[in-house]
Amino acid sequence: MIDLSNHALTEAAEDRCFLCGEKFPIDQITREHVFPRWLQRKFDIWNRQLTLVNGTQIKYRSFTAPACVECNGISLSRIENKVANALPSGAVAVRALGHEVLYVWLSKLMFSALYVEALLPAEQSNHHAGPILPSTVLENFRHLHFMMQAARTSIEFHSFETKFHASVLVFPLQQHPSAAHRFMYRDDVVHGCIAVRLDTVGLICVADGGAQERLAEEIFPKLFTHNLHPLQFEEICAKVFMKARTQQLVPKYVTAISPSRTSVVQIPFGGMSGGIFGEWDQELYGQMLAAFTGQPLDIISPGGGQVVTWIGDYDEPDTIDVSTHPWP
Known about the structure:
Mean pLDDT: 94
Distance between the termini: 47 Å
Structural class: alpha+beta
Radius of gyration: 20 Å
Oligomer: single chain
C-alpha cells in the first residue's frame, strides 16, 4: 500500500516522474510515450505530426514524458496491457475493464501531454525560451492527478449518486475502410474532457463527478449498443464537450488516507444549491460540431437554431454504413 498523504505534484521537471511526482537522478528517469507505442504501431502514427497548443509540431514518437522505472515499467505497463489486449474484442470488452482502468488510461494521455508542454520550450529554436505552458498549470489538475494514482495503489471511491468520480462512456464503432482514419484524439483541458476513437471503440471521459454518464444512461441508452458511424461518434463528442461547458456544480470530495487505506467520498450533488447544468447554447454547439467534423458551419447550422444530426432519434438511431459513406 502506497501512502498518498503527502502526494502533490506542483511543477514539471525533467527529473520528476509525471505520475508519482517523485524526483530521481536523471539516469534513473525513463521516457514514457504520451501515446503508447502499441497504439502508435497499431494506427501507424509513429511518424505523424502532432500539433501542440501553441502551434508547435512534434512527431508522436518524440512526444514523451519523464517517468520513473517503476511507474513506467510496472504501473503504467499494467494499464496499457489491459487496454491493448481488450481493444481487438471491441467495446464490450473495453467497457468490462471498468471505470478505474479507463479513467487512468485516458487521464494519463491528457495529463502527460500537459506535463510535456510544461517542459518543452515555446520556441523550438530557442531552448532558453519559457515553456509552452507554465508549470503552475498542473496545480489545476490536482484531483485528476491524485485519482491517477490508482495506477500505483488502491483507491476506494464512494458515491451515493454516481458510479464513479468521472463520466466514462464507451461506444461501439464501425471500422473505417481506411486504416489512416481509425484513430482520433481530442481534449478540452479547461472543462476536463477527453475523447478517443480507437478503430471500433469510441471513448469519452469527463471529470464531472459522473454527472454526464448518469444523464447519458437516461437519455440515449441505445447508443451504447448501436454500431456508430464515426460522424455519429463525433456528434456525441460535441454534445458531451458542450454539456461540460454548462456544468455549474463542481464535484467536491472528502479524502481519508491512512497507511493501509485511501478512500475518496464524493459529496452528493443534491446537497449543493442549484442545478448541475446550466443553459444550453445551441449556437456554440453548432460551432463545436462544425469544428469536430470539419464540415462548413452553414451546413451544420443552417439557421433558426437548427443543427444537423447524423444520429436522429435517440430511441431509434439512424444506421449509416461507413463503407458506403466514409468519413473523413
